Input
Amino acid sequence: MTIALACVLGALAVGGTIAWLVQHDEKENAFGMGEVQVVVNEEFNDPYTVKQNVYVTNEGTVPAYVRAQVNIYWVDANGNQLWEEPKAGTDYTIEGGLPAGDGWAQGTDGLYYWKTPLQPKDLMETVGTTRNLINRIEQTDEQRAKYADGRKLVVDITVQSIQYEPADVLREAWGVTVVTDANGNASLQTNADGNVVVTLNDASAGSTATTAEGEE
Output
């Protein structure tokens, strides 16, 4: 299992396959006492053609709301991004859809939101983790063999978190509204289609963890 750390690791170059590079940037939450620190967890195989069990851990000291951006694209043999968009089912296979696990919902801004406050991880590690955002994404031999121009598939996952209280901060920073049910349980407001309602798109607020998969 790879846990993103507070640095940028050197790129892994793997000829003809998916290459994985991981980075993690963390900073103290600016909206109140306590620390919000998120970590992206994942597994990948050798020779890096399968990425699986991607989820988020709250390593901070306070509950936090979490959102993720997933970008899947091609780079050429020189590492330059191509305009052509990879197609799920044709150029790669994703198991269980995106997002994969219950508790995640896509926002009207295209990002993926963990709908309830993510508690800090305790000493027994019984809380503090989301369900899988991605179960499994891979390229088969047949999918890789379709292209002879040296291109590689890249999967970038950026995850942000923000302290769950006060709710006004969440609305101002991310444009999402917190609702509370009859039992006092808080969650993000969704529409009739189950999407988190977002009234603005500010990708800069909160603590950030990133996995940037690419080639050297």
